[in-house]
């Protein structure tokens, strides 16, 4: 047994420990009370979660209410249609029964009302059957129609008239009942079909927005938006700003998707102003989601809100890439790891910019306003070779819409700046004849098909530019365009014999590499022939060829190869007859007879054939090195 002293000592020690614990608890409680962010932040978070749940519950209840009303209206409509069918069936039966009863009663009343008379015999009493005796002369048959009288010709009987005769009797008033009155007053209280459809679409969009989940994310868009705050107001998430703005903007005539885009654009603007780039990808994704629920003819008016934001965000991520491209691959890789490049999705922004551009292209006025919002620097950044292949292709598709009747590219208020910008844009396009976009470090190099499709897109932009007199004059008077186009034709004709055609060409769904090379030749020759025939008086070919090294000889070799294709081989299959004729006409207009003889001598076969006719009967497939270039006519310069 323990002594009383030991028990007393244990009690004192226990009391001491209890006092120490109380002191420690008081200290921790004081620290928590003094902390400015612990308890208030938890309280604010719980309050925010409660508001979100309340809003979601309210939206769900409203959606369920609308669904119930729609279902009740549908059932009521079906019930009314069924009742109408039964009533129509009953009315038809009553009408048929009344018709039968009226017909039988009328015959009975007539029979009862007439006085009985003695039946008269209609027979002749001559001993013959009356039906065997003909009452008229057999010479003229009564079956023949007699000649109508003049009055009968002009007069039309009432039975033959296609219009029913007018009735001068006042029609009897219809029976009046309560159902008819209610049916007549009902349309005044019903909602118009267009308004009801708009409300249904808005409700459906809200439902889709609440459950929308971005690609590659495990949470919903609104839940992700709750995690972002503006630096100027860190206690209020962006989702609350969005929902509050949507709930207070019901007075406008825009639909809910358009209102959503306007609110998201406002948040986007505030994020850029406060240099807060983290939520930009989510905001742009929500804008694209909202635009998918609208038609382009309605959301093209949002271009003035969205386009400047796209250009501003693209400049933040594209300009560092262009500058790093000039320094080398290591600087470019370091730039791609910067926060701005990781927080801003440039592909997403270019897709949104292209979508707004296509929406504005339905009207010349809208597309002109679009290109007034585009600045020259941004449009050139979209075509820079430092960008990936798919992004430059998107930039070319956007630039395709800028070929207008009086302008090309970004529209400036200063006419002098506008003319210089158009020349610089064409100059950038001519680089695409020989340069290709840069290949990312972790991707394989581009194949021949991708390169050919890239240059075909460039030629489509130039072909669109030739549709207007302003654009064709711009190309014809450009210092470098025709010379570089001739060089491109010569290189593509040479590639025609180095890229083998497919052995299963008829079985391919898409064109092979050789077919794409042929297409580039056909498109280039059409553009060149159009410019030389339309503006030939103002074009000095010698001056155009001087900007390219060996431009004059490249012109002769390329045009001659195309002009002497008379029986196309497998390599030359697909070259259009119009292209061959165009090459002939260009040579005839540019060369003198002496130059033509020199070209014919250059085309002689290595076996020593001197017959120009023999040369013309075969397809010329030699390389440039096998031609006797010394016999070609000298450069005029």
From TrEMBL:
Listed Pfam families: Rad26-like_C (PF21046), Rad26-like_helical_rpts (PF12331)
Q: Which residues form a coiled coil?
A: none
**Which top-level group of life is the source organism from?**
Eukaryota
* Region of interest: Disordered: 13-184, 605-637
In terms of InterPro entries, this protein maps to:
Rad26-like_C, Rad26-like_helical
The Rad26-like helical repeats domain extends over 309-532
Q: Which residues form the Rad26-like C-terminal domain?
A: 539-602
Output compositional bias ranges, type Basic and acidic residues. 43-52, 59-99
- The protein depicted here goes by the name DNA repair protein Rad26
Give the originating organism.
Peltaster fructicola
């Amino acid at each position: 047994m323990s002594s009383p002293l030991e028990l007393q000592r244990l009690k004192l020690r226990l009391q001491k420990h209890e006092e120490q614990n109380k002191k420690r608890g008081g200290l921790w409680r004081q620290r928590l009370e003094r902390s400015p962010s612990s308890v208030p932040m938890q309280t604010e978070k719980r309050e925010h979660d409660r508001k979100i749940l309340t809003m979601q519950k309210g939206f769900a209840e409203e959606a369920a209410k609308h669904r119930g009303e729609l279902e009740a209206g549908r059932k009521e409509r079906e019930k009314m249609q069924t009742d109408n069918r039964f009533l129509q069936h009953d009315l038809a039966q009553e009408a048929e029964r009344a018709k039968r009863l009226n017909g039988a009663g009328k015959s009975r009343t007539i029979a009862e009302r007439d006085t009985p008379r003695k039946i008269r015999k209609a027979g002749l009493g001559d001993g013959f059957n009356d039906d065997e005796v003909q009452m008229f002369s057999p010479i003229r048959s009564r079956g023949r129609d007699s000649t109508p009288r003049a009055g009968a010709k002009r007069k039309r009987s009432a039975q033959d008239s296609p219009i029913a005769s007018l009735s001068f009797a006042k029609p009897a008033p219809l029976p009046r009942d309560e159902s008819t009155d209610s049916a007549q007053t009902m349309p005044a209280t019903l909602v118009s079909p267009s308004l009801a459809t708009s409300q249904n679409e808005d409700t459906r969009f809200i439902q889709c927005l609440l459950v929308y989940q971005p690609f590659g994310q495990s949470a919903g868009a609104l839940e992700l938006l709750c995690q972002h705050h503006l630096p100027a107001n860190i206690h209020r998430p962006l989702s609350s700003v969005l929902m509050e703005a949507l709930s207070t903007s019901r007075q406008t005539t825009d639909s809910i998707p358009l209102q959503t885009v306007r609110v998201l654009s406002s948040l986007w603007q505030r994020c850029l102003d406060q240099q807060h780039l983290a939520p930009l990808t989510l905001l742009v994704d929500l804008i694209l989601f909202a635009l998918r629920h609208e038609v382009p003819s309605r959301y093209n008016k949002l271009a003035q809100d969205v386009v400047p934001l796209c250009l501003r965000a693209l400049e933040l991520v594209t300009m560092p890439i262009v500058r790093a491209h000039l320094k080398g691959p290591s600087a470019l890789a370091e730039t791609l790891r910067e926060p701005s490049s990781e927080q801003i999705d440039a592909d997403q922004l270019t897709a949104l910019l292209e979508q707004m551009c296509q929406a504005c292209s339905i009207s010349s006025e809208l597309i002109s306003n679009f290109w007034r919002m585009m600045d020259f620097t941004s449009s050139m950044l979209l075509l820079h070779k430092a960008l990936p292949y798919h992004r430059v292709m998107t930039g070319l598709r956007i630039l395709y819409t800028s070929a207008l009747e009086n302008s090309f590219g970004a529209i400036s208020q200063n006419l002098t700046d506008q003319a210089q910008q158009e020349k610089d844009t064409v100059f950038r396009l001519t680089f695409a004849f020989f340069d290709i976009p840069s290949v990312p470090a972790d991707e394989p190099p581009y194949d021949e098909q991708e390169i050919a499709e890239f240059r075909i897109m460039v030629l489509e932009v130039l072909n669109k530019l030739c549709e207007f007199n302003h654009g064709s004059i711009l190309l014809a008077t450009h210092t470098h365009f025709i010379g570089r186009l001739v060089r491109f034709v010569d290189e593509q004709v040479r590639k025609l014999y180095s890229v083998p055609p497919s052995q299963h060409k008829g079985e391919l769904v898409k064109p092979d590499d050789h077919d794409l090379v042929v297409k580039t030749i056909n498109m280039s020759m059409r553009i060149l022939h159009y410019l030389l025939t339309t503006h030939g008086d103002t074009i000095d070919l010698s001056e155009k060829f001087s900007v390219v090294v060996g431009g004059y000889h490249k012109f002769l070799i390329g045009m001659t190869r195309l002009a002497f294709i008379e029986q196309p081989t497998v390599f030359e299959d697909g070259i259009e007859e119009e292209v061959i004729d165009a090459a002939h006409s260009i040579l005839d207009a540019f060369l003198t007879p002496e130059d033509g003889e020199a070209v014919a001598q250059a085309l002689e076969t290595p076996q020593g054939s001197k017959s120009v006719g023999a040369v013309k009967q075969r397809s010329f497939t030699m390389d440039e090195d096998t031609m006797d270039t010394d016999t070609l006519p000298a450069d005029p310069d």
